[in-house]
Structures are given as C-alpha cells and as structure tokens.
Design goal:
39% of the residues lie in helices and 19% in strands. By secondary structure, it is of the alpha+beta class. The longest helix has 13 residues, at 75-87. 31% of the residues are buried.
Length: 281
C-alpha cells in the first residue's frame, strides 16, 4: 500500500494536488496510478474543485509555454535544450526528465521556466536503490520543435549537437554538461589537499563537438576516450585545479541557470588556491 492509505480520509491538500495535476494535463488514469486511488475518486476531487472534466484525449486547460523551443534566443532556452539533449527523453507527444532525488529542485526550475508552477506534478519513484523524481510534459508543439533541433525518441546513440547562436553556445553546453557530465572534489593521493576533476559522457557526435568547443576557448586539449562497453559511447575528462580554473568558467561564469549541485562544486573549485610549483636550484 502506498503512503496514501486507502481507508484514510484525504486531506484538502491532497485534493488540491489531484486538481492541480489534472489542470496541468495529467490524465485521471495517470493521476490514479501515481497516487494509488481510483478513477472515480480522482474525478470526484476534480469536480469538487470546480474544474470541468475534459473529454478523453482533449487538450489540457492550463497552458504552458508550448512554443518555448521554437526559437532558441535566450540563455534559458539554450540551457534547457542542452539539458534535455543529454538527460531528457521524448515519447510520443511527451517530454520527460528524471533525476535523482537530490536534484529535485532542478525539475522545479524546469517547470517554472515553462510556466508550469505546480511542484506536485513530480512523480517519485525508486529504481533499485536509487530514489528519483521525474516529470513529463505533454506538448506536441514542444516535441515538434525539439525534433527540428535534433532531439527525438531513442536519441541516445545518434543525437547530434544542436546549432545555436555563438553567444548562446556555452549555455547549451552547460545544459549538456549538467545533464550527462560530472564534476568532483576529492582528496589527492597525499590525503592533505583536495583536487578536482570533470568529464562528460555521450555519443561520439556530442563528445567530439564538446571537446572542440572547449579547445577553442581554453589553453588545454581535451582527449576523447572510446567506451569499450558500447560501440557508440565516448567520454572526455580533465582535471587539476589550475586546468579546471581555466576551463570551467567557460561553462559556469556569470550563469543564471544551472544544476545547483554542480555549480556549488564549481564555486569551491574557483575558491581553491593553486599551489605554486617548487623550483629547485
């Protein structure tokens, strides 16, 4: 049995959750499945909130910005295009993003960005031992716009980087990095000082383009490694305080939208003093 007991009276808050999920476009069937309640109960709460029950397969009543990806002309649009390219999925007319529970707030940023202000449309789940939250947005127009930009169903192995304006490319790649990259702080071999490393995983098209983008803007060359476990996957990695302090600002300096967890490590990186190499006579 779910945390919402079948024989317990539902609170006004829960009824509001049901109504809000319905208004954002989630079907009665999906609401019932997610909240472990009957279709009849869902309809009851929807009607109690004065919401007109829509016919099957009808368009949602509360709109989001369906045209968000029609033209990529802002930092936010470039960022979320990159993030969905890396860590989103398209299925039918739906765009989904699923993240670890620690990154739940990032999903709320996405919803707020497109005008869906209801945090309760997040779906909580366990995948093995991994605690996750996910959200799906039903928008044929968004799906169509993303397909023009190269994001489509089953994209992982053959998606190409999107073409965006030069001044927005770093925001696009920050989105990709936040989705499929990593940045870590760890003790060095001596155990007395912290070091940092970062990298990105993806298909050859994405990794090659990212490495080239970074090479053009930093003094460091990024090598690309083929993943022996997959015929299409590659990685690029780099590390060291000095190198990363020159490289990572390309992505994160003066950014307005980012994954908080990775930005926090970036801030620690930039505050870390670089040890000067000893010179011997």
């Amino acid at each position: 049995m779910s945390a919402i007991g079948r024989n317990e009276p539902y609170s006004q808050l829960l009824q509001g959750v049901v109504a809000g999920m319905y208004e954002i476009g989630i079907s009665c069937t999906d609401i019932g499945r997610q909240l472990n309640m009957s279709h009849t109960t869902v309809l009851k709460y929807v009607r109690q909130h004065g919401i007109e029950v829509r016919p099957a397969n009808s368009k949602r009543k509360v709109e989001i910005d369906d045209h968000f990806f029609d033209v990529i002309d802002t930092e936010e649009k470039a960022y979320w295009l990159g993030f969905i390219t890396a860590d989103g999925n398209v299925s039918g007319n739906r765009i989904g993003i699923g993240l670890q529970a620690r990154d739940k707030e990032h999903l709320l940023k996405w919803l707020k960005t497109i005008g869906a202000h209801w945090g309760y449309c997040l779906v909580e789940s366990m995948r093995g031992k991994s605690h996750q939250f996910s959200v799906k947005i039903n928008s044929p127009q968004m799906v169509s716009a993303l397909s023009v930009l190269g994001v489509f169903e089953n994209k992982s192995h053959n998606v190409h980087p999107a073409t965006v304006r030069c001044d927005l490319q770093r925001h696009y790649w920050r989105g990709v990095f936040d989705g499929d990259g990593f940045i870590r702080k760890q003790l060095n071999r001596s155990g007395k000082r912290y070091s940092f490393c970062a990298g990105l995983a993806g298909n050859a098209h994405i990794i090659t383009a990212f490495a080239e983008f970074m090479r053009e803007r930093t003094p460091h060359k990024m090598s690309i490694h083929k993943d022996t476990r997959s015929i299409t996957s590659c990685t690029t990695e780099f590390g060291g305080v000095s190198m990363m302090q020159r490289s990572m600002p390309v992505l994160y300096a003066n950014a307005n939208v980012f994954l908080d967890r990775k930005k926090a490590i970036y801030d620690e990186l930039m505050a870390t003093p670089v040890l000067k190499k000893r010179r011997y006579a």
